[in-house]
Amino acid sequence: MRKTQLIPAMLLLGLAACNNAGDKAAAGSDTAQVASHDTAAMGHDSMSHMVDSSKLVTPLPAVPAGAKVFFKNLKDGATVKSPVKIEMGIEGLKLDTAGAIVAGSGHHHLLVDAGDSIPAGQIVPKDEHHLHFGKAQSSTDLVLTPGKHVLTLQFADGIHRSYGAALAKTITVEVK
Ligand SMILES: [Cu+2]
Separation of 98 CA from ligand 1 center, angstroms? Predict the structure, then answer.
């Protein structure tokens, strides 16, 4: 909304600038006219550069309203046995393999004792505490030591950029 209002305003300013330059050129010589055209062209170029640079990095796809991730087979506070079978659910987005950035899709990540979400737009690390399921898997068997563990499902886009807290779910389990 804000952007669409801004662009016509910029165009008007640009046109006004061009007109002013034209007036001056008309009063001057032919050489001055050529120069003023160049200046006008440069002005337009720098504007299109501004638009282009914003397209260089594809923005994180939007999270559809009502979308969520959830543990299909585990409840918060559950007592479990290792290896723990974990079924990862997603609603409102498509489960896809890692690779391309496709709006409305992504893959699961499991954070093991590593907090309750990764900030939106940040790449999910890859280590023993941050597991990626880039082949579009929806379940895994996780080996855990006895005791309490915090498990977080974190959905991310095709290049592992987190969708943030909106698409994260954290539970605590007790391993016997
Ligand atoms: Cu990933």
Answer: 6
What is the 90 CA–ligand 1 centroid distance (Å)? 15
Tell me, what's the pLDDT at 77? 98
pLDDT digits (tens, 9 = 90+) for 79-93: 999 999 999 999 999
pTM of the model: 0.69
Ligand 1 centroid to Cα of residue 134, in Å, is 5
Eight-class DSSP state of 161: B
Which CATH number, 1.20.1250.20, 3.10.180.10, 2.60.40.10, 3.40.50.2300, labels domain 68-175? 2.60.40.10
Task: Find the 167 Cα to ligand 1 centroid distance in Å.
Answer: 14
Which two tokens mark 140?
Answer: 């895994």
